[in-house]
Q: What sequence folds into this?
């Protein structure tokens, strides 16, 4: 498994109430604020969890250009932009493969690094979740509908009232909706290049598929 796969999660959608739809100028203003924050971002770090899936929560560290570290459960995935190390602590094994940038798989980090280039703002609404959290929700869609990125029809980015703090990301891909909660998002954190390479500990089985 090179990347986290999104699955259908519709239950959380039913626990949300939509209140207001904003004007086109408001939509553009929120989009531009995000662009100012993430358009030049070189790195980011965040905690994430998949709504409705208690077993899938962890952290992501990423550098623009394909380098990332995903840590969740007993698994850590490292990518230095050329190779991917999929390390299972429980199995004491690591699978090494080539990084395929053009695989078509969706990656969580791409939302922060590439949505400005490939998506355009479609709608801005406000909503309140069942736990009382209020959010601005910016819906973005592919600029070229016939060539949607990784099969994604739309992405909804849930924002706090300052319109720059991301609370969640809701992805509509081929009719399946996945929701990812985002916490402690930090951009432009200094991350050494060597962090994205993995040296297997002694006793770990190495499966090299390159």
A:
């Amino acid at each position: 498994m090179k990347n986290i796969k999104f699955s259908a999660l519709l239950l959380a959608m039913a626990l949300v109430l939509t209140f207001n739809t904003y004007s086109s100028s408001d939509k553009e203003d929120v989009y531009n604020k995000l662009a100012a924050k993430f358009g030049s971002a070189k790195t980011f770090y965040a905690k994430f969890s998949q709504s409705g899936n208690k077993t899938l929560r962890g952290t992501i560290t990423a550098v623009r250009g394909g380098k990332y570290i995903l840590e969740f459960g007993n698994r850590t995935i490292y990518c230095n932009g050329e190779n991917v190390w999929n390390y299972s602590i429980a199995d004491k094994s690591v699978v090494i493969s080539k990084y395929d940038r053009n695989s078509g798989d969706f990656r969580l980090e791409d939302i922060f690094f590439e949505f400005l280039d490939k998506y355009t703002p479609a709608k801005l609404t406000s909503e309140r979740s069942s736990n009382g959290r209020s959010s601005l929700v910016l819906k973005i869609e592919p600029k070229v509908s016939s060539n949607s990125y990784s099969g994604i029809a739309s992405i909804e980015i849930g924002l706090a009232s300052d319109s720059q703090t991301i609370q969640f990301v809701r992805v509509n891909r081929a009719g399946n909706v996945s929701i990812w909660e985002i916490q402690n998002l930090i951009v432009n954190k200094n991350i050494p290049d060597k962090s994205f390479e993995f040296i297997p500990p002694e006793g770990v089985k190495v499966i090299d598929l390159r």
Notes: The longest helix spans residues 24-38.
